[in-house]
Amino acid sequence: MQTLLLAIDRISTLIGQAASWLIVALTLMISYEVFSRYVLSAPHAWVFDASNMLYGGLFMLAGAYTLAKRGHVRGDILYGYLPPRAQASIDLVLYLVFFFPGVIALAWAGIDFFQVSLAQNEHSSIAADGPPIYPFKAVIPVAGALLLLQGVAETIRCVICLKRGQWPMREGDVEEVDVEKLKQMVSADAAAGTVATPAVAEGGGAREEVGVRDSHDRLDAPGEGDEGAHREDKPARETDGAPR
């Protein structure tokens, strides 16, 4: 089962990495259009639709990849502190109630959109030489199927976690932030702060004890304190011995 899950992760990863090259194509196309518009004074009307389709294709094809890397937006203020079985229970309910109905509807509707667009040889209506739209609409069912396949893998992981009490392995990839190292750094800083606090307290206690000893030493040793006491006692004795 673990081999199957990693194979699904690998498919989503490869497709996501391949789709990431659309960023390069989009950047080059927009750069050329800016040069052509402002330097050559020769804009192209089809660039608007083409840029939207490139970005939309990238967005849809990266959905399964992002799900495989657990990169979708999650309100994990409390989720991150839950034990693995509680996390798996929440994920399993959300997958069954919200994820699968929505993704199945997306894939099913995408098939119809693509068939109608292909039958009509649909092109963009913004310009006379607008690009064809049916290749872009073909991405909708493909992205929905990939997202559905990755969702099945994530559901199986939830069931395994409920049985074993820990999450199974997943396919690794380059991450912008190494979450595990970040957690280790935070834990180390927290541990260092916990250790340092008693040390400060002990040092403070030592300073307090030294202060107490110094005050006792000043009281016991002859010095300014005793002279002050003698100066206060002398008038009292003179008063007692004086005639009234």
Describe the overall structure:
With 244 residues, the chain is mostly helical. It folds into two domains: 2-176, no CATH class; 193-239. 77% of the residues lie in helices and 0% in strands. The protein contains seven helices and no strands. It has helices spanning 2-19, 21-38, 46-68, 84-120, 134-164, 179-220, 224-241. Helix 1 (2-19) runs antiparallel to helix 3 (46-68) and helix 3 runs parallel beside helix 5 (134-164). The termini are far apart.
Itemize the secondary structure elements and their pairings.
Elements: H1 2-19, H2 21-38, H3 46-68, H4 84-120, H5 134-164, H6 179-220, H7 224-241
Helix pairs in contact: 1-3, 1-5, 2-3, 3-5, 4-5
Characteristics:
mainly alpha; 244 residues; single chain; disordered C terminus; 2 domains
Helix content: over 70%
- Along the chain, the helix and strand elements come as HHHHHHH
Oligomer: single chain
Instruction: Give me the number of helical elements.
Output: 7
Write down the Rg.
37 Å
- Could you tell me the strand content as a percent range? under 5%
Question: What structural class is derived from the secondary structure elements?
Answer: mainly alpha
What characterizes the major β-sheet? none
Distance between the termini: 112 Å
Global mean pLDDT: 79
What's the domain count?
A: 2
General form? globular
